[in-house]
Every structure is written in C-alpha cells, then in structure tokens.
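Sample entry (420 residues):
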Amino acid sequence: MLYYLFTWLHTAFDFPGAGVFQYISFRAAAALITSLFITMIIGKRLVNFLHKKQVGESIRDLGLEGQTQKQGTPTMGGLIILAAILIPSLLFAKLHNIYIILVLMATVWLGFIGFLDDYIKVFKKDKKGLPGKLKILGQIGLGLIVGFTMYFNDNIVIRERVQQSAYVPTVDVFNVEGGVTTPDKTRIFSKSSVKSTKTTIPFVKNNEFDYSNLISWMGKGARQWTWLIFIPIVIFIIIAVSNGANLTDGLDGLATGTSAIVGLTLGVFAYVSGNIVFANYLNIMYIPNTGELAIYISAFVGACIGFLWYNSYPAQVFMGDTGSLALGGIIAVFAIMVRKEILIPIFCGVFLAENLSVVLQVGWFKYTRRKYGAGKRIFRMAPLHHHFQVLGYHESKIVLRFFIVSIMLAVLSIVTLKLR
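Predicted structure, serialized as tokens:
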C-alpha cells in the first residue's frame, strides 16, 4: 500500500525521497525491519495474553528430558508469524503482482488450517485436533489453486534464450561485476515472454527441464496435457514440505530457525531470477516480476527471526500448527514460483530428513511386525530430532547442529547457481 502511495507522490508531486520506493532492495529492507518490529510488539502482548488465558500446549509424555517443563507453554504463536509476514508484505509489495497474490493467499490458507487445528486442540480439548484427512484436503486445495494458476495464468511467464543473430540488444548489457559487456549468444534473452513449464535442475550444464518431456512419448499434441503431470507434482510438493515443517516443529526454535535459513536461500533465488542482469551473468532462467518476491521473503525471514526471540530455548511460546503448516507451505509455493522445486531436497534437507525418519520408522515397524510378529525400529524415536534426544544430546545442542547443517545445505543450494 505504501508503494502505491509513494509512487503517486513521486509521480504527481516529485515528493523528495518518494522515489526510493521504486527500489526492491529498499522495500525488502523496510519489510524486514517492520517484520522484526511487529514480532517484538505483537509478540510480547500475545504471549502475555495467551498466558493469562492459559492457552497452553498439552504435551504428550514421551519420557524425554525437559519435556514435562514444557507443559502449559502457550501455543498458537504462529499468529505472530502470520501478522509479521502479512502486514509488511501488504505495506511494501506490489499487490497487483501475481506472485505476491499467490503467496499471500497460500499464507492465509495454510495459516487458517493450522489455526483450526490448534483451536480444536486448545479450546475444544481434543488432542487429535483437526482430522488428518481434512488437513490433507486443505493442502490439496491449495495445490490445485497454485498449480492451475502457475500453468494457466498469462502473467506467469519466463524469457527464453535466443541466438545472438535473432536478437540485437538496443541497450548495453552491464556485467554485475562492473563495465559493459557484449552478451554471449548463449546468454541472451528474448524480448518477449512466453508461457513455459520449465524448471531448474541443479548441477547440470543446461539446467532447465520441461515437465512436458514427461509425456512426450504420447506424440504430437501431448504438450497441451502437461497440466495433468504438473499439478499433481505441485500438490505433492506442498503436502510434503508443509508436513515436513510441521514434523520439524518439535524442539524449541528448530522449525523457526530452519525456516529462516531456507527463506534467505529462496530470497537469493527470487532476486537473481527476477533481475535480468543477474540472470544473464549467472546464465540462469530469467523469470520476470519474481524480484518482487524479495519483499515478501524479507518479511518471512524477519518474522521467523523475530519469533525466535520468544521461541528459542526455553520457549515462552510455541508456534503450533498455525505457524508450522504455514511456514512449510509458504516455502513450497515460493520454490515452485521461482522454479527451484527440484532443489527442495537440498535446501530443505532438514525437513526431508525429519519426514523420511517418520516414514522409514513407521514403514519398517509395520513390515517387521507383519513378517516376524514383533515390530522393530530403525531410530530410537521419530522424528529424527527425538532420536538424538534419546541418545542423550541436549535440546539446544541438537537445534544448533541442525541449524549448522541447514546453513551448509543453503550454501550448497546457492552454489548451484554457478556450479554445473
């Protein structure tokens, strides 16, 4: 909203300083600061309110060290995160941008599902919360909206590379390291944007993959049915990452800090993919208008870091499903929009490990029980962070080491922009 106000002031009255709102870097910084400020102000008041209303978490006794002390800790703190994401985004982002519209809708959608789950657990005193089938249906619904929008909306496009002979630049192309350079024929973008189902493959020289190739065996005309492949993939990614973040939210600050690190990684991807100079220099896919997502992701990172003020060990408040489902879903939708979804197993490696630990544990237990009559376990306890707790590691040490692993994976993911 402030973007439109100051753009009008700059255009109509040449208001001093109003032109700075045209810069993504300034608005991203402003969104980050505003998000941190909101978490400090709203966070303290909400934590105190939840304490007074005794909106406490009901802890299932797993026999883990320090677990009983968490009984009664306020939950539904994800409301702080949602407010700290939505308010700065509405203030500083271009609200007519299709990517901003899509990610804001995903934030509210999954935040609402998580809120219903927490509300049933806390106020209805039903430990099961929202039935798992309804959660999955909600995630599928979001996946359908995101998938159909990504595939059919005419504003979601990319720029194809063309041969130099087919494109003569009318302006100089500046190298991001300084100076003017003549574009190489393999690093030139067409003037016109096109609809595409291409995405990015890491560590491959020509690192673009078209989903339509999956049905190329069907012959001519098969491309028009690519949505039958693309949309189910989008649904799967949203369900997997959203639930992965939800499973990771088991130790103080773990899901919050990991999400902040992932958010920073996605912010880099969004900024360079939406900037034709950086996209040209890095020889990556240019996706017009995705640079605006840097404002949203700055608010996202600020919300996560600010929430750590209250959520770090020992936690004063838990985010609950209100926060964890939303954080995972946001990451999934964001990665799909900047066409880095194939990189998710790398920069979301912690979420993936948590997911796999549960799947393997349950699958192996059922298999061995059916075959041998007694179920066996791979891990001492699942999800993975509880396995390390059973081994005797302190909660804060586990969280910090998971952060270190997440940072390493984030760096590896960013390196893929050049390392092929």
